[in-house]
Amino acid sequence: QGTINGLCARDGFTLDLAWKNSRLASVKIHSRLGRPARLVLGSHTLELNAPPGTGLAFDAELQPVP
Predict the structure, then answer these.
(1) pTM here?
(2) Nearest-angstrom CA–CA distance, 50 and 25
(3) Which of 15, 16, 41, 49 can pair with 5 through a Cys bridge, CB separation 3.0 to 4.6 Å?
């Protein structure tokens, strides 16, 4: 288990990841530029459009978390 915070991704995104038992537990995506993104995990795919300066959080099945 563990976490990593502030992982930089293309097009102005940063990611915070948490995993447990060698599987993803949660992911937070922060958009600095407001560009579209695609998040893929196994057979799950999400198309994202987050305004600049906002963040989105998801659970292990890529379902939104408040």
Answers:
(1) 0.85
(2) 21
(3) 16
